[in-house]
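Protein modeling request. Please complete all fields; requests missing the sequence field cannot be processed.
Requester role: graduate student
Desired output: 3D structure, token encoding
Chains: 1
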Amino acid sequence: MSPRDDRDPAPGALQTRDLEAVRKGLRTTAPPDPARLAREVAELERLAASPAPQRWWGLLKRGGPGYLQAAMTLGGGTAVSAIFAGRLFGFQLLWVAPIAMLLGVVMLNALAHQTLSTGVRPFEAMRRFAGAPLAWAWALGALFASIIWHFPQYSLAGAALADISDVAGARVSPQVAAFGVLAVAALMSLLYGRNDRAVRLYESAVKALVWCVVLAFAVVVIASAGRTDWGAVARGFVPSVPEARGGTEGLTLVAAGLAAAVGINMVFLYPYTLLARGWGRAHRQLARFDLGAGMLVPYTLATSLVVIAIANTIPWDPASGEGARLQAVDAARSIGSVLGETRGRVIFDLGLVAMALSTITLHMVCAGFVIMELTGAAFGSLRWRIGMLLPAVGVFGPMVGGDLLFWLAIPTSIVCGLLLPLAYVGIIRLQASRAYLGRDQPRGVWGALLLATMVAITVFLATMFIRDVSVEGPKYLQKLRNDSAPAR
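Delivered output (488 residues):
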């Protein structure tokens, strides 16, 4: 498309003066430091001409938003799924985590390119160029997911801290521990948006949490290395679907892993974290690198280490009559046989706490951005911070009965699972919009291949979701009927 095409869009398309009004990035009370951004852009230009090792190290030091994505998905759901997969199928499903995250990287990379090329706030871009229904479904789905999935995070963190207190002889209840987690999470989250330095400080804290998760589970795997069949581990990264075991289909866990690795609230949050850092066109290569080094690698490492640790220490024995499911804290207690009763439990529990805490803070930040867009609040304003605290109701997770959480989890999974492909449809429409991207729209063979890949990913996830609902939905409903039936 010629430069004139950019200036004079087709009749009915958004006019240039309106586009410029939209391209303001975040409405912020604390804009990034212009001098710092200028230095950063100059450094990125220098790194682009540097040898690969130096360039990679320089980009690694400057990343951040990718780590936030890893932290958001490394929560209670990931922990329980990885424990269940390792317990039931050993190393056979190790491939699911990297493949699932790679699918997310493709979509988030396209979203990063769109946001950094135009500077348009993502919700506004989708509303104007892809349709208001898709934009509202995206935002409300992200808010709904952030609030509902907050409950199990506190349940996990509270139980893990209570288990640590048992080791120390203090006996703190999960309910009390959950409020302590809320206090720390609120302090961390309220840093975000206060000013440019606070945003970077928050990201550094989340980076530390992510690598604490990896380190905690790595210690367990190293301690049990003598039991590990590394050949089987290598084969576990080759895609295959194991036969049903313990009443669970292998494809069911595959579908759950593929759908859950990148949630709708992650997709909403990501481009806003780019704008909050002040990133723009010059940061597009950095954003691509950060998605790989900050999101894909830590997530794959953490989930793989949990699966390996569980498969080594607590493999499922069908002859024992034990259930296939295993609570996270029960797993921590079992790990004690590897590192010693005290060290094993504490290290595994600390890894679980770090997973939950990182996810809790990101749910809060995501809710703040949703409220910002739905109410017209400024980034960092009081209304934005009140929005951040909406998910805090999840602190009552340890007090809520498992049956109620089950009732909440099923419809949430269905609604958010359906809305994620819809959000992807919106991103695809933005990718195909010349009125939105102009000269930054990927063209030629590469552009066509990228768009086709995005469509294929969306269709695949939608198909897996429909299959999961149609096959597993009746089982869940039967369980609900059985649980609610009066005792005889």
